[in-house]
Write a structure and sequence with these properties.
Layout: E1 2-4, H1 20-35, H2 40-45, E2 48-59, E3 68-78, E4 82-90, E5 96-108, H3 118-125
Antiparallel strand pairs: 1-3, 2-5, 3-4, 4-5
Length: 127
């Protein structure tokens, strides 16, 4: 996923505010899933969805106002109820800014872990 950095993404020094990377990771995961036919809206309509159970972020280098970032996202591990995404965020010069890992758990409307539908599990590891 490509992400252009706007002024509102930065702190007063023109550096991307650290918490905004979490939004970038969320957007990248959504794009990843939608590219594989997993639509969050459809899951939510069924009363099922993913929740973040763990987030790891290593900040390697700052990104700045007007940069264009590339967020690479892969599934590094999955089971019947959880999926772990690994992310790398690079600037337009190829410099790594962030390395992250996000653990999602599939839950029902009561936030109880639930086995993912087969099309979701297959979609996460295909392509």
């Amino acid at each position: 996923m490509q992400k252009r950095i706007y002024y509102h993404d930065t702190d007063c020094g023109g550096v991307v505010y650290y918490a905004n990377y979490l939004k970038f990771l969320e957007e990248a995961r959504t794009e990843f899933m939608e590219d594989r036919g997993i639509l969050m809206k459809n899951l939510i309509d069924r009363g099922e969805f993913f929740v973040v159970a763990r987030q790891e972020v290593d900040y390697k280098a700052p990104a700045h106002y007007a940069d264009t970032l590339t967020v690479d996202t892969i599934v590094s591990e999955s089971s019947a109820v959880k999926v772990i995404f690994s992310h790398e965020i690079r600037n337009q010069h190829g410099r790594i800014c962030v390395v992250a890992k996000t653990t999602l758990v599939y839950v029902d409307k009561n936030l109880k872990p639930k086995i993912m539908p087969e099309h979701v599990r297959k979609g996460l590891i295909s392509k």
